[in-house]
Structures are given as structure tokens and as C-alpha cells.
Known about the structure:
Elements: H1 3-8, E1 15-19, E2 22-25, H2 26-41, E3 51-55, H3 60-71, E4 75-78, H4 85-95, E5 99-102, H5 107-110, E6 118-120, E7 139-145, E8 153-158, H6 159-172, E9 180-183, H7 190-202, E10 206-209, H8 215-223, E11 229-232, H9 234-244, H10 249-259, E12 264-267, H11 274-284, E13 289-294, E14 298-302, E15 316-317, E16 322-326, E17 339-344, E18 351-352, H12 356-361, E19 369-378, E20 381-387, E21 392-395, E22 398-401, H13 402-409, E23 415-425, E24 429-438, H14 445-455, H15 481-487
Parallel strand pairs: 1-10, 3-4, 3-5, 5-6, 9-10, 9-11, 11-12, 12-13
Antiparallel strand pairs: 1-2, 7-8, 8-18, 13-14, 14-15, 16-17, 17-19, 19-20, 21-22, 23-24
Helix pairs in contact: 2-3, 6-7, 8-10, 9-11
Amino acid sequence: MINIVERAQAHLERVAVRSENKDYTYQDLLNSSENISLALLQGRKDLKEARIAFIVNPGFDYVAIQWGIWRAGGVAVPLCVKHPYESLKYVIEDTQAKTIIHSDEYEPLVSKFNKELLLNRKNVLATSGYLPDIDESRRAMILYTSGTTGNPKGVVSTHANIEAQVTSLVEAWAWQKEDRILNVLPLHHVHGIINATCSPLWSGACVEFIPKFNPESIFEVFCKGEVNIFMAVPTIYFKLIAHYNTMEEEAQKDVSDALNKFRFMVSGSAALPISVLEQWRAISGQTLLERYGMTEMGMAISNPYEGERKPGYIGQALPKVTVRLADEEENEITDGSQGEIQIKGPNVFKEYWQKPEATTETFTVDGWFKTGDIAVFEEGAYRILGRNSVDIIKSGGYKISALEIEEVLRKYPGIKDCGVVGVPDDEWGEIIGASLIAKESEIDLKALNTWLKEKLPNYKMPRKYIFQEDLPRNVMGKVTKKELKKLL
């Protein structure tokens, strides 16, 4: 039996999931997932790693379907509930999914697929039969990641990979059966699936879902005093802070009092601006725990649960994970200079689905997974500088972190947010381009350039190129980082 399922036997009467204002016990989860397994098997002994896609809202049904696919010997392919038909079509065709389980809400979206593939969740009826024994080496899940070029790739994780990712977090973050987490994260990403769903369920804890992200609803849940763990991306914390600032003083106090009682809070999936960390700490009394991971490996590095959490740093290697920094020739770096993060451990994925060349290319000859992220190790912790292909700007022979420049720019009084990218240049290779969102009015670029010279003294690059006056006006200060990349 799959270990996460087997462990549920020890918590039968405990609440596993709360969704749509209803509590579901571990016994409910076992019963429902078994029915789904038997319905998928249809009398067969084993799905033998058939890919089963599913699209339902976050909640009990999601977890029951995921477990049901696993218990029948299938490979779970969770679909993004916000993706358009063409994106779903790519995943369905690439995985050669044998079944698409869906709820009523997504009937119109999936109706364009072959009717023989479709299985409405409400039509999964109780039946009898036997479930197969599942070896941990078998494929368990395919999640899609776009990377930086080409079509999205299916990341294949085995049951052993998932268990390694989960148990590493359970140990590092001291998960307990008394914990309760509010999960507002997308459930086609590793953050929402592994960190915020599988880890608590492995521990006998409770996962609570709300129908839709809404700052007011989230604060209402917090103030009930039942949830003690929360995980989110920086954008969510930014929105929560903005909503908090609109609340009456008494309501703010209620929120702050509730948040002060949390065991811990996590931020991940993107760089956390220090300004957001500090604002949230002032509101909640919590120093957000930053961690580092990818679809291909789950979490690999984390700030400590107990001990100092350094703003701007992602911490140290998690249990069972080995981390190193390597240069462009894939030699390990030990002198404190920057290099690519490379990972080894049972948490690392099996393969890219039906892409053997891409799989081979992402590993070194001696088996290290190449993340493509550049970092430095200093003062006992790793600090991310950015993606080698996107966030590391190579100018005049120097490697410059776009993320570091963004962090500095956000401290300028007139800037609300920003995005920095490398702009091709014949002389320098790349120069720095920035998209700025002003707080109130237009930004005086000359004053900003003078300010930057003081704040970025260590960057040995031509200051006149920090902002180019000859760039189109509709680029400077008018567009997002994503849009800027398209324009340039």
C-alpha cells in the first residue's frame, strides 16, 4: 500500500479535509478514494501507470481523486482549473490520458474532448473489488512546467520521489497531527500539492480549503483560531497586506492577534521582496519562512523552522537533500563565488515525460540535477541571484542579478513595483532594462539614476546604461516585467 494512504489508517476519526463548510475524516478519504479506484479499474487488476487527468475545484474531491488514481496504479495528472481549452488539450494529448475526471462546473470545458475519456465525478459510484499493491518506484504524478523555452514539459515523479519530498518537509518543519493549514494555492503545482496538502495528510493533520482566493475570507478563517499554518506566494501576501491596510483598527487588531498565534508561515515560488516580509512581520509577528524548490524536485533548501531566518536568503539544504554550487564547466564552487544550484537526492524527479534528451540534458554526467538558478553561499545560507537564462544579466563580462536590482529599486520612494531584464547590446552583450510602476506620478529618471549610483556601488558597469533615455516612452514606467520582455 502507498505509505501516505497506509498512514491514514492511524487517524481514521481525525478530520483530514475541510471544504465547503464540511469536515471529512481520514476514514471518509479512504472510503471515497477506494470507490474512485475501483471505478477506474472497472474490474481490471491494475491501471499499470495509465495517465488519469482530473479537473475539479480544490477540496475533498481533489484529494480523494488524487488518492484514488494512485491506489488504482494510475499516474495522476492534475489540470489547472484556469487554463483555456488549448492548454488542457496539450496536456491531455502529451500524456495520452486514458480518462478525464471532472466536476459539473468543468463539463463545458472538457466536453470538446473525446466523450469516451470523460468521467463525471458524480457518476463515480461505489463498487466492489480489490486494489493492487503499488511499488514505490512506480510513476505517480505528472506536473507540467514550461521552463524558459519550448513547449511545457511533463515532470514525472514516482511514489518514492513524492514520499521523499514530503518526509523531508515533515522533519524540517515539525509537522504534527494537531496542525491545520489553510491551502489557497493552485493544485497543479508542487507548492500546493506537496507542501500544503500531502505533508499535512502524511502527518494526520487537517487541510482546509476555501472556494476562491479572497483576502476578506482568508482573514475570517484566520480569526476563527483553528488554522495555525499558512503558505502562499509573495503576491498573496502583498494582497493581504493591502486589504489589511483598508480595515478598521479593531478588525486589524483581531487579525494580528490571530496571526501571532500561528506556528509558522511560508513564502515561496517567487522571490519575496524584503519590504513585503517586513510589512507582514509588523502585522503578524511572523517572520515568513522562505524556501526554495522546483517541480522537478519539490523543496530542496529552506530557512530553519527554529533559528534565524535571514531576509533575502533561502537557507540551507533540507534533510535527505544534497546541494552544491557549480560553475559553467560543472565544477563545484567552494570559494564563495556565485554558481548554479545543483541537487542530488531521492526527491529529484524520474524524467521528463517522453523527452529522454531533455532529461539527459538537465543532469550532469555524475547525476546532479541542474536547476538553472544562480546563487551564492554566504554567512551559512544560500542567496538566490536569479535564473541563469532570465535573471542573470551578463554585461561587459560581469554577471549581474536582476533580482538584486529589483530589490534596490523597490526602496526608491517613488516606485511601487518594478521588473528588470537584460536588453541585448552590441558593445556590452546585455544592458539593464527596467519597467517601473510609479506610486503616484511619473518618475524623474535622472534623479533615480543618481540615487542608484549610490545604492549600487559594487556593480562595475556603465551607469548611463541603467536607464536608456532612447527607449520608447511606452516601455519605461508603463508595462509589467512580462510585457517588457516581449517588447524588448
